[in-house]
């Protein structure tokens, strides 16, 4: 006779239960459901934060897939729209924001700046406006997400609004 080799986890189970393929499929479905639930919870948290910051967007909807957040709704103005994008984008786990919002009252779009190590609002103001003393413009443009002009961090994205002269 001799020994015969088999793959121990393959095939039908003789004592009931599911095959390894069925178990794997069930585990994958459970993982997918857990990811969807976590993404829905994160999206709800972002919506609540946007509401708490008093950023007015009609029919705000945020959906997350992987590291991409899609934002829809109608913002009161361009500033509000950009702040919503920043709230969502400056959140852990989000690498891309697909901005599909509409704007009720149009105005010039701001530029965006990703904070680097060693940056300060005055250094950023000098770069964009040619005057370091214009840092309060950047600070005000990023309220209420910023609460202190000295509390910015590398990787954070800031709004740099257009100003005249």
From TrEMBL:
It holds the Pfam family LysM. SMART domains: LysM. It comes from the Bacteria. Residues 111-160 form the LysM domain. Gene3D superfamilies: LysM domain (3.10.350.10). PANTHER family: POTASSIUM BINDING PROTEIN KBP (PTHR34700). This is Peptidoglycan-binding protein LysM. The lineage of its organism: Bacteria, Pseudomonadati, Bacteroidota, Flavobacteriia, Flavobacteriales.
